[in-house]
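thread: overnight batch results

M.L. [08:02]
morning all. the overnight job finished for the chain we discussed friday. pasting input first so we're all looking at the same thing
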Amino acid sequence: MHPILILLIAMASVFLLIIRWKINAFAALILSAILIGLLSPHVAVEDIMGAVTEAFGGLVGRIGVAIAMAAVIGQCLMESGAAEKITRRFVAWLGEKYSSFSMVISGYILSIPVFHDTVFYLLVPLARSMSMRVKGRNYLLYTLAIGAGGVTTHIFVPPTPGPLAMAETLDIDIGLVIIVGLMAAVPSALACWAYAWWIDRKLNIPIREAPGLSLEELEEVAHRPESELPGFGVSLLPIALPVILITANTVTNTFFAGSALSDVTAFLGNPNLALILAAATALAVLASHKGLGLRELAKPTEEAIKSAGLIILITAGGGAFGRMLVKAEVGTVLGEYAQQAGLSLMLLGFGVAMLFRIAQGSATTAMITTSEILAPLILASPPGHHAVYILTAIGSGSIVGGWMNDSGFWVFKTMTGLTEVEALKTKTVSLFALGGAGLLASWLGAVFFPLV
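M.L. [08:03]
and the structure it wrote out:
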């Protein structure tokens, strides 16, 4: 069977299992990975399960600890009130006139260690209360602004699973991915925010009743005393600490390789250890603010790790799915087509990731699968720029086309009270602006700062 036909059948399998038959995403990805092996003439039947489990286990070993610790950090940020403190401080600094930009910045920062859907749940009450302050106006602007910041770091910046797994698959230093990802996220967030301004004025949708707090209760949220929240510096520390440690390791390896300092930063800047230290810091913030002992801290830790377990399974399942596509020589054929058409690996990565995203809904799965397909192509034909720009291009493509098979679409639609059509006009189209700006930023970075 031709590899492209195998790709189409595999995508249809994931789509039907998850969307049509409501099968768990992890099970759907593993079953589809097995199906690829059965269809491919390049994989012996007796080797299928070994190949699937080897790819699955390898990815769990590389990203499992980091994802679990990131989940603990996110849980503690929410329970301690640190996330709310960060948001309020940005609002105070920027003023009511630019309060929508405070939502962009808050989403940008909080989505580094916390899943974007969780960040949206966290910030949407504040966005709604901001709209209440201006008599229900600018509702779309405030709610879309959360995603403008949050989605960008979610797809570009480790330790969120997508970019973390891509960095491991493409063998790119995680510190470099953080630096370039943070930079690529800025124009992407601004493009999405600009669209939010335009569509808010065009549609002029007033604030709606939605799940959670009623419009009356939002008044209370808007006036909650800051004395009940942790300090700003303390709130920001669990997020800043791993970024500083991992980036320091990249810098010392670049400029002071072989020195005693590089040995220290290599230990402290290991992503797993950096996130363990950050999780310990986040637990300390929660304990000190809420007056909790070690026994009381067990509950939020267990809840976070439970949620992380599912994330790890789905992420590794996506890795196994992508690896089986590689074994079926899908990547080789796509590379040949791209070469014949004159497509760069950057454009190929963007296009394939967008195709996977539209087909099955998960940006993380799209990122992991595409990076698995492109890894051997990059090795066989290195581009004239650093592979980190292919990573950001893949991330940009993975966010384009989020629609009714995407959980984030339904989170946005439900938590804002919009109709399906309104959500498509607003949330879905904003992601096209975001992804397009990310691709442009990747191309400009590759041209002017090739890093090779």
